Amino acid sequence: MTPLLQVHDLVKHYAAAGLFHGAAPPVRAVDGVSFEVGRGETLALVGESGCGKSSVGRTILRLQEPTSGQALFEGTDVFSLDRTALRRLRRRMQIIFQDPYSSLNPRMTIGAAVAEGIEIHRLAAGAEIGRRVAALLEEVGLDPAYARRYPHEFSGGQRQRIGIARALAVEPAFIVCDEPVSALDVSVQAQVLNLLADLQRDRGLSYLFIAHDLAVVRQIARRVAVMYLGRIVEAGPTEDLLSAPRHPYTVALLSAVPEPDPVHRRTRIVLRGDLPSPSNPPPGCPFHTRCFHPARNERCLTELPVLRPVGATSAACHYAESTPLPTAVELGEA
Amino acid sequence: MTRVLDVCDLRVSFPTADGSRLHPVDGVSFSLDRGETLALVGESGCGKSLTSLALLRLVPPPGRVDPGSGIRLGDTDVLALEGEALRRIRGRRIGMIFQDPMTSLNPVFTVGAQIAEGVRAHFPVSKSEARERALRLLQEVGIPDPSARLDAYPHQLSGGMRQRVMIAIALAAEPDILVADEPTTALDVTVQAQILEVLDQLRRSRGMAVLLITHDLGIVAGRADRVAVMYAGQIVEEAATPDLFARPSHPYTQGLFASVPRITGPVRRLTPIRGTVPPPVAWPAGCRFRPRCPQAFEQCELPPGLRPVGSGHSMRCWLAEESS
Q: Beta strands of B105-191 (E only): which ranges?
């Protein structure tokens, strides 16, 4: 069976206007990213701010136009669709955001917001719309009576549930979840993660789950792709990637996760320096300016490593075969 | 151990439209020794940030610190201070850093000028000596190429570097206590690790006490000596860090732990706390966690006090009676 979504060599560059000196080099937000998402599956896209993970999600939905590349959704080439066809496709592909408040119209009741998609796509008419809205609110754990209330009357967790109900209203097969729990308190975050898991089970949904938190990712996704400076540097089954990371950036990211356990302390790798600018990425391996791999050498400065299978995952590092695990790594200088 | 801070029965209140007062901080007591890190942990609205603002008498009006509250910095009664004396406490005795360094830095002055200003506000030194100290501070907080960064403007620095600058400004006054209010929440995890490392080094090298205010139990695990968990304006559990993590006793603390996804061990369905944190107007009588507590019983309609459940370990729960 073909995957629900196939993304091939996706590139998204943003033209950057220089302030004083004309055109600046483009920001290479996404620089050749390929992956697949199966039916009923969650793929997590993980990375730090500026790695391009959100741009990937938005480009696939054509909320932003790609620079080049291909995305096949249920066999349809998303990037070649005209507006009418795109609107039909949006019924199948939805997105939920980190801050649902900014995507809700403050003057529209919750009921009207959830009903909007149903009306646009003519999925129901008359009293049936109200019944569907009530059922959706109930499905995401909200009182159907809330339909008459306005967004400001709700807490962050409730608003995220409203955002999810809105996305579900058009009966999608695929949802881009862009940091959906990052702004929530831990007790509420757990509620929303459980809800997303239940909805996936009940509706057979596929998720592209964009996040920066590896512990959250482990909770929700069986497969994960780690991004750094617009590229996937490592991808594979979550448990394999977390137990035996092959790319030094994954090792560093993993070691930085604050685990609530003071007894089993892991070695911390404190990466030196800052993330390089995506408008001027380093030549060769994009990670070489911060790399602590003992085998790193001149080759890393000039030759871009390609993503290739190494053990149970794929990694884009020339020396992925010999990447030491967090426990064995010497601390990089802070 | 030298006691540097004593907070006793701190209450912060705000007037309401009907003339009564709400207490978002309601009877908080804790102390801090030299060189110690105490973490104040809780979710949004628990009163942890307001508690830290009260230490510096920075509660925004019409809020106030209620009579009967006690804040002592060594021999100094902070609540009795006015004017110049109060200003000397701020920064010099207690330094503070916040979640978002960009809003606390002045965009039109160089980093070096802002640190030097901090130095000269507290010590009678020449301009060149202040700049010299600013350079040393940038070095101390681990900014690469510090002499070049001295002349950089805030917007030219990354989020992590800006937070280091904020720490340098706080250190300029050589405070006994550093209050760090969610210092790494806006930063990426690898940068967060860098900043926490810097704070830890400074605590050790300067013997500074740190009050770390955070919502993240993960950060606490590696960094704090003691933890106080706050819920609805009160400390509900306090213990040495290893003890709290080994034996979380208050049902709220237990609920927090069960809500956090883990990076190791088996992946299980999370067990969230039911409901949401209520705002101060909706705090119930008796135990404030009662409506969300899976173990609530009749006695919980009366307010529980903080009771010991072990050595240096206490909680605000009627179950403490049964366990002891």
A: 177-181
Residues near A104 by beta carbon (within 8 Å), at least 6 away in sequence: A113, A151, A159, A162, A163
Q: A23-47, pLDDT tens digit by residue?
A: 678 888 999 999 999 999 999 999 9
* Shortest Cα–Cα distance, B271 to chain A (Å): 7
Cβ-defined contact of B272 to A215 (cutoff 8 Å): no
The whole-number pLDDT of residue B324 equals 53
Q: Which value does ipTM take for this structure?
A: 0.83
3-state secondary structure (DSSP) of residue B189:
helix
CB contact under 8 A, A253 and B241: no
Taking each helix axis from N to C end, the angle separating B127-140 and B159-172, rounded to the nearest 10 degrees, works out to 130
- CB-nearest to B142 from A213, A257, A334 is A334
Residues of chain B with Cβ-Cβ distance to A219 below 8 Å are 261, 267, 270
**How far is it, in rounded angstroms, from Cα B183 to Cα B187?**
8
Rounded Cα distance, A10 and A68, in Å: 6
- ∠ CA A115-A144-A182, rounded to 5°: 80
Q: At what angle do helices B159-172 and B189-206 cross, to 10 degrees?
A: 20
Interface residue A98 vs chain B (CB under 8 A): no
CA distance A306 to chain B (A): 24
Q: How far apart are CA B117 and CA B115, in angstroms?
A: 5
Instruction: Indicate the residue of A48, A190, A261 with minimum beta-carbon distance to B188.
Output: A48
CA distance B217 to A260: 5
Rounded to an integer, what distance in angstroms lies between the CA atom of residue B225 and that of residue B212?
Answer: 11
Q: What does the pLDDT look like over B68-80, one tens digit per residue? A: 999 999 899 999 9
Beta-carbon contacts of A325 under 8 Å, excluding residues fewer than 6 positions away, are A244, A245, A251
Q: Which of A216, A260, A334 sits opposite B221 (nearest CB)?
A: A260
Contact B259 A218 (CB under 8 A): no
CB A168 within 8 Å of CB A140: yes
**Regions in chain A scoring below 50 on pLDDT:** 328-334
Q: What pTM does this model have?
A: 0.88
Which segments of chain A are extended strands (E)?
A: 5-17, 23-37, 42-46, 68-73, 76-77, 93-96, 174-178, 206-211, 223-228, 231-237, 308-310, 313-315
Structure-block tokens of residue B264 = 């190791």
Which residue, among B100, B230, B259, B267, would best test binding to A if mutated, counting the most A CBs under 10 Å from its CB? B259
Q: Which of A215, A193, A238 is nearest to B269 (CA)?
A: A193
- Per-residue b or e along B165-193, where b marks 16 or more CB atoms closer than 10 Å to that residue's CB: bbbbbbbbbbbbbbbbbbbbebbbbbbbb
Element holding B5 (H helix, E strand): strand B3-15
Q: How far is CA B300 from CA A68, B231, B252, in A?
A: 62, 15, 14
Q: Are A55 and A73 in contact (CB under 8 A)?
A: no
